[in-house]
Design brief:
Order of helices and strands: HEHEEHEEEEEEEEHEEHEEEEEEEEHHEE
Strand content: 35-45%
Shape: flat
Largest sheet: 6 strands, antiparallel, barrel
Strand order of the largest sheet: 3-4-5-10-7-6
Number of helices: 7
């Protein structure tokens, strides 16, 4: 017969705790622990960034929807200058009635490490009174940087996402017609030098200033590469010692960006859009116990036109039109309601929904709770 080992109560308790800890670890730990994200999602490398480019050009081939030359004289001037560069002389004082040309601004972003010969997308926007850029072609346009140097040349057919039609005094339009995109519409002519390593250090910049996240990033980097590799300068900048050989920097940065970093809990914040009545809050918002009473006041003004005719015919009276105005004021009284203490976002939502307030009323309630010290969050009104 098989023998069974008898376990004492301490052994059973020990194994039960071991199984509980294993399940607890597999489940992700306590609900209050921060979620880990890749370093590339939380920060960027100093010096690795896009550079904006801008240029002025002309769009031709429009179906009668271009600029009106009398109201936009710079369009005619630009066309005259361009034709003179092509060897065509326009007599001075000539009034060209053009409907198929539009003056535009061209913008693009030059990626880091971009090389000459590569292409980038460009955005084209009308700067005159053109009705539509649909079907137009952008002529060769130099794109300059902040240093006034040419970094790319743009040209190509414009793709406009909108549509419109007009006939008989009626018109219909869907989306915007005065702007479009040219995919791979610019060829890079010049590169921007990028310096990654200075004094043997690579600087990592967090997207948001947070001392907790910066310290977590330092610990994660040192645990991955070894102690002393990373140090935090402040709540946003982290200095990392990089390999001395240039050939090893690419591999080092690839490993560095894929390190998981626990993100610290963000500050409690409530964002209110006063124009639309939109209220957004993060998971750190809490509410202390308070009492709230609110009411709504509405005023309705109704105006009618009445036609009054004389009672006696042939008496020389005239028909008159009079206005009658009816003003009604409605006030809904509110009752004092208790707001329970809420320690998480779900409780906050349930508590605010229990008040039965509209989004516009909710804006005033949150402002009052903040003034009373019951709202444990930063209030930002946009």
């Amino acid at each position: 017969m098989p023998s069974f080992a008898m376990l004492s109560y301490p052994d059973v308790l020990k194994r039960t705790l071991t199984v509980f800890l294993m399940v607890f670890t597999l489940a992700g730990g306590a609900p209050g622990l921060a979620h880990a994200e890749r370093l590339k999602d939380l920060a960027s490398i100093q010096g690795v960034r896009d550079n904006p480019l801008v240029g002025y050009g002309l769009v031709v081939g429009l179906d009668g929807s271009g600029d009106q030359v009398r109201q936009t004289p710079f369009t005619q001037q630009s066309l005259t200058n361009m034709l003179s560069q092509l060897g065509i002389t326009v007599p001075q004082g000539t009034n060209m009635q053009l409907k198929n040309v539009a003056a535009v601004m061209v913008t693009a972003n030059l990626p880091s490490f971009a090389q000459p010969g590569q292409t980038i997308d460009v955005n084209v926007s009308s700067m005159g009174n053109a009705k539509s850029l649909r079907g137009g072609t952008l002529l060769m346009t130099p794109l300059k940087g902040a240093d006034n140097k040419i970094y790319a040349i743009a040209q190509g057919n414009i793709v406009v996402g909108g549509a419109g039609a007009a006939a008989g005094g009626s018109s219909i339009q869907v989306n915007q017609l005065n702007g479009g995109v040219i995919s791979n519409g610019a060829v890079i002519e010049r590169t921007v030098p990028t310096t990654l390593r200075r004094d043997g250090l690579i600087r990592i910049e967090l997207n948001e200033t947070d001392f907790g996240t910066a310290q977590n990033a330092v610990h994660s980097i040192n645990n991955h590469f070894g102690g002393g590799v990373a140090t935090s300068v402040n709540g946003r900048v982290i200095e990392v010692r990089s390999p001395s050989l240039e050939s090893n920097q690419g591999e080092f940065l690839a490993r560095l960006q894929n390190i998981d970093v626990p993100r610290s809990m963000a500050r409690a914040k409530v964002i209110i859009n006063a124009r639309t009545g939109t209220v957004v809050m993060n998971q750190a918002v809490t509410i202390d116990q308070a009492a709230v009473a609110y009411g709504s006041l509405s005023v309705v003004i109704d105006q009618n036109l009445n036609v009054n005719q004389p009672d006696t015919p042939f008496a020389g009276g005239r028909t008159a039109i009079t206005r009658s105005t009816d003003i009604q004021m409605q006030y809904q009284q509110g009752q004092l309601q208790k707001v329970n203490k809420s320690v998480n976002l779900n409780d906050v939502i349930k508590t605010l929904n229990a008040l039965g307030a509209t989004p516009q009323d909710l804006v005033s309630i949150l402002q009052s709770l903040k003034s009373a010290g019951a709202l444990r969050a930063d209030l930002e009104i946009v």
